[in-house]
Amino acid sequence: MNSITASEAAKAVIRQNTEEVQGKGNFDIFEELFADDFVDHTTQPGTTPDKARVRKLFPKEQREKKEAYEYKQR
To answer: What letters, b where the CB count within 10 A reaches 16 and e where it falls short, cover 21-32?
Structure first.
C-alpha cells in the first residue's frame, strides 16, 4: 500500500496550486483546493481573510494566461 505523509500531501496541494492555478490560471482547481470556509491567516490590513479575497489575488493576467494556454493546447 502506498501511503504518503501529511507533509507530502501538503506539498502536493501547494504544487498543484502553483502549477495549475497560478501557472495556468485554472480556477476550477482553485475551487477544489480552497474550501468555502477557508481562512487566510496572513491577510493584509483592510482585507478580508476569506476565499473570495484570495481569489482576487490572481489578477486579470492570470485569466488571460489561462486563455492563452488553452489556445495553445488546441
So the answer is: beebbbeeebee
Q: Where are the domains of the chain?
A: 6-73
Distances from the Cα of 25 to the Cαs of 13, 64, 65, in angstroms? Answer: 15, 8, 6
- Alpha-carbon distance of 10 to 32, in angstroms, equals 14
The string of pLDDT tens digits covering residues 8-43 is 999 999 999 999 888 887 888 988 999 999 999 998
Place of cell 501557472: 23
Lookup result for grid cell 494566461: 65
